[in-house]
Amino acid sequence: MLEFLVLIVALLAASGALGVIRALDPRRPLLVYGIALVLCLGGLAVVLGHRVMGAPVLRLVLPLGLPWVGVHLRLDALAGFFLLVINLVGALVSLFALGYGRHASEPGRVLPFYGPFLAAMQLVCLADDAFSFLFAWELMSLVSFFLVLVEHEKESSHQAARVYLLMAAGGTFSLLLAMGVLAGADGGYSFDAIRGQERAEATVVSVFLLALIGAGSKAGLIPVHAWLPLAHPAAPSHVSALMSGVMTKVAIYGFVRLVFDLLGGVALGPSVIVLILGGISAVLGVLYALMEHDLKRLLAYHTVENIGIITAALGLALAFAAAGFDLLAALALTAGLFHVLNHALFKSLLFCGAGAVLHATGTRDMERLGGLLRRMPTTGISFLLGCAAISALPPLNGFVSEWLLFQAILQSPILVSLPIVLVVPAVGALLALAAALAAACFVKAYGVVFLSRPRSAEAAAAREVDPFSRAAMLAFAGLCLLLGVIPGLIVDALAPVGELLLTAHLPSQLGNPWLSLQPLPTSASSYNGLVLLSFLLIAGGLTAVVLHRFGGAGLRLGPIWDCGYPDPAPSTQYTATSFAQPIRRVFGTVLFRARETVTMPPPLATAAARLEVRLEDPIWERLYVPVARAVLAAADRLNPLQFQTIRRYLVLVFLSLVGLLVLAAARS
Amino acid sequence: MRLLLDLLAQGLQMTLVLAAAPLLVGWTRKLRARLLRRRGPDLVQPYRDLVRLLRKEPVIAHSASPYFRVAPYLVFASTWIAAALVPTYATGLMFHWATDLIAIVAFLGFARFALGLAGMDVGTAFGGIGSSREVMIASLAEPAMLLVVFTLALLAGSTQLSAIAEFLVREPVGLRVSLGLALVALLMVAIAENARIPVDNPTTHLELTMVHEAMVLEYSGRHLALIEAASALKLTAYFSLVACLFFPFGMVTSTSSPLLYPLGILAWMAKIAVLGAVLAVFETAVAKLRVFRVPEFLGGAFVLGFLGTLLLFVSRAL
Amino acid sequence: MSPLAFDIAHLLAGSMVVVSFLLLYQDRITGVLNVFAVQAIILALAVAFQAWSQGAPHLYLTALIALIVKGGIIPLALHRIVRELGIHREIEKVVGVGLTMLVGLALTALAVIVVLPIAQEAGRVGREDLAFALAVILLGLLMMITRRNAVTQVVGFMSLENGLVLAATGAKGMPLVVEISVAFSILIAFIVFGIFVFRIRERFDTVDVHALERFRGD
Q1: C126 touching B (Cβ < 8 Å)
Q2: Which domain holds residue A628?
Q3: β-pair partners for A58
Q4: What is the pTM of this model?
Q5: pLDDT digit string (tens) for A442-453?
Q6: Chain A partners of B79 at a C-beta cutoff of 8 Å?
């Protein structure tokens, strides 16, 4: 079984070579995507089969890599779940790419890396020793770096790729240190050796912090998120979908594997750090998104938000586990991992939709879009479902995972330790704020892009995309609805993960009457999306029938009313920037130092008035710029070292050697 | 037989809220008018308005997308269901487990999302201003609402509305300042969500201060009727929520006989009538806030909600 | 102590904190003064209730002082000052209301976190009163530093003192002498403040303490 998966991963990696060949043949570059689709479906089948067998732990050692170490691979419930996410989304995105990839200007820059990217992500989840884990992790970063650089003629791509490479290297370095500390002085680098060790409290905390920085920087957790809103939009849209939807989840996998599995959990204090960072990421991410009017950057910032939600859930799970409440920890973990799948689905859907819009109109600037629902109905409807799902609205899937998380938060008073008990409701309020702001943001995004009147000629002339893309988007949307209506499928599928990591799992849900969700037997809280959806359809349909039957079905088309002052110019509509104005005024004046300057022409002059909005990125300005300055200053100070005589260099080497020896002597 | 009775009881609640919602609106309007020494319209005027709107032919702008015609049905159906799933006269009705407090709030959020999109659809400045302000207000109300939920769930150990109501009837809760704070916070959230004074003025037109009305400006005929009915239902839903969570007395519990239902219905009507009267008095006593004072108002609700949670923790920790 | 008595003590002490937040929320001077009077009345009730439940008759005197001096005389006098100076406008704030309230919440949480674990021996009501009293004191301080107006600074100070009294009564009462001297010192402080307000006004035509900063010697 594991062998099949390894074969699939190897074939995916090999499809990169095919990509090179295919890229030379510009007529049919699509074979690569077709192969990726088939392979991902195969992987999906294997993973589902593994789950049906009860998710046993399977191992495999390949005679590759370092001599005497080899490559250890392992498939367990946790890896299985993330492989499910990767393969499911990978398959649908490949389907999308079958149509969308045809429009790539330079397929030769995408195709060779597409398969290896999917393969590297799967390899991270399969790795069972520190060496192969870090190798796969670095491979994933490197391949995605090339994918960010696809539109190499744009300066913004270069900057994005530079920042990305730097932060990815930093993150991997941090993980490398974490692995080193985990393995200890004796150097057992296989995960089995690491798992069994006893560790001092300080070691646990340092590994935890390193893992948080390393995995967090890959996932896009604030404050180490800076590369994400640059890099994800720079890649071609189907790759953006994979990066935002899947690669950030692999980072979450890394965190869960290191902290929950290898480290065996942390104390209450550190877990609260995770919780708070999650809450802050969620709110700041969505606020950044609200200030944005580039559709793909807006979606990228929402990834920061959703990673925050997932991280908060993981932090809560750690806190519950530290206090010994395994069932509640399993509830929070289930909420977090459920959200992993949900976010992978709707974020990929939204990025695919953004890709379709970009292809149809040639722009991602929301201020130039509008009215696309009439021109692109299938894209529009599936994008709408994605918007509702990411805004955590019932009866879709995003709501279910947030509901589970809120149920876990509401159980937090059981952690009697006072500061924590007060932090959790505060984080809960932050998450509620984030959910409401996300809804606001997607009213803005959908309203400006798909509703309203077209704001440019390109938008007015948009055409619906090809059937492959449409099928993929509809499939994503259908899955979002399905998981919202029958969440028991995923909650039950996550039971072995809870059992593996926390030795506890939620009661089986699929056996509940009417398929409702009732996570905790002790509290009567329950939710049923199926009933809600059917009520919604019945009530809405009934109303429509009754009204049309008794009130008449007539309808007249007329000019816009607008209180009697309609203006035919589409530029008088609300734009994305104006839509965000109330929220910018409430939150932005303090957070982003938002300043609006209005330049009015003098009376009787016919020049246009100008409104200028200036925003400042607080994290970039306060954290990154000072660090960059410090590095530059240090480099300036060290610059003279480059121009020394050979004798001086020898002195330096000699002094370092002696210094190290003294250190060693002092230690022993 | 049992199933049929259960279905009937649930159906009764659905029709009850639908039938009573316009009456509630009429009642508050009448009271407000009397307080301002006007005669005021009839109690049944909202029904007449709805019928009149239903008969009229809707006019839709050329630039409206198909979504514009679907939205009123979505808004109406989701609000109606939310209102019908809040326990009114009895706890533990057939589908009481389908939603809890969080899901009810989120489902009302669904309605708002649908309506906010509709406001953006035609592509006017008024629609945009209404939508953007509505979502701003909602985003501030939501955290306060969660803290109210938190306080109640902390007391009752569940977010299920029926469970909370039964718990509060059954257990001696004592004097809880937290409950009082949660009640005030919930009322403030309800005022903001229902676009009432001081947050928004439901009777204003052609003013830059309007929020909800600006959003639905382009609607007419049966579509407008649906939206009007939905806002009446939303008010009813929030009042039923307040009644169920803070004044659960007189509700028929799942163990008692269905013959008590008429009494429960009377008790519910009395409760929401009293709440309507309180609303009318409050609305005549305060002036409308400037839009950018609304965050302070809702910030106050948030603070009260958080204090409620805090005080509850303190009395628990002792 | 019966649960009901505990609940009443909890209610009164909790209301003190809530009223402190209301003080922070007000943006008109007259509103601030009225809310302050309400806080004094609640304090009087809380102290009187403690007097009854602890069986300590001298606390009734404290309650009476709070009611008459802080619930009556001082607010009325301040109202007069405000009227005579003609300064019943909106209060200028250094920090916005929303941010002040959030900081206030954090301070309240801090007070609870600090006091509850350390004051184990003070008894249930005592611990709670101590926690809430500390919160009221911190909120009073917060009010003093976030407002520019001298009158509201006086009110912030008085509200801080309300917290002190609440703490004292909760901790099984302080000696009567101490209380009376505290009450008098407050009265004197009030008089001093009052004179200052008038003098500032005479001198600079405003009670915005910001105007004084120019004259600070370094």
Answers
A1: no
A2: 618-667
A3: A75
A4: 0.92
A5: 999 999 999 999
A6: none
Report yes or no: A476 and A425 within 8 Å, Cβ to Cβ: no
- A225-282 pLDDT per residue, tens: 999 999 999 999 999 999 999 999 999 999 999 999 999 889 888 999 999 999 999 9
Contacts 24+ apart (CB under 8 A), B167-172: B168/B245, B168/B246, B168/B248, B169/B248, B169/B249, B169/B251, B169/B253
Q: What's the Cα-to-Cα distance from A153 to each of A20, A157, A158, rounded to whole Å? A: 20, 8, 8
Cis peptide upstream of residue B198 (ω within 30 degrees of 0): yes
Which residue carries 């003590």 as its tokens? C9
To probe the interface with C, which of A280, A283, A422, A589 has the most C CB atoms within 10 Å?
A422
Q: Does B250 touch chain C (CB under 8 A)?
A: no
Residues of chain B with pLDDT under 70: 175, 204-209, 317-318
Domain with C144 in it: 3-215
Q: What is the mean pLDDT of chain B?
A: 89
Alpha carbon distance A189, B288 (integer Å): 67
> Which of B177, B300, B313 is opposite residue C11, by nearest beta carbon?
B177
Neighbours of chain B (3+ CB pairs under 8 A): A, C
Contact between A227 and A163 (Cβ < 8 Å):
yes
Q: Kindly state whether residues A53 and A2 are assigned to the same domain.
A: yes
Which DSSP helix (H) or strand (E) runs through A557? strand A556-558
pLDDT above 70 (res A157): yes
Could you tell me if residue A270 is inside a domain? no
Number of domains in chain A: 3
pLDDT at C1: 56
Which of A418, A421, A586 to substitute to test the interface with C, most C CBs within 10 Å? Answer: A418
The candidate with the shortest Cα–Cα distance to A500, out of A329, A340, A310, is: A329
Angle at CA of residue A171, ends A165 and A174, nearest 5°: 140
d(CA A448, CA B120): 7
User: Both tokens of residue B279?
Assistant: 């609303």
Q: Does C73 touch chain A (CB under 8 A)?
A: no
Considering the domain architecture, whether residues A55 and A113 belong to the same structural domain is answered as yes
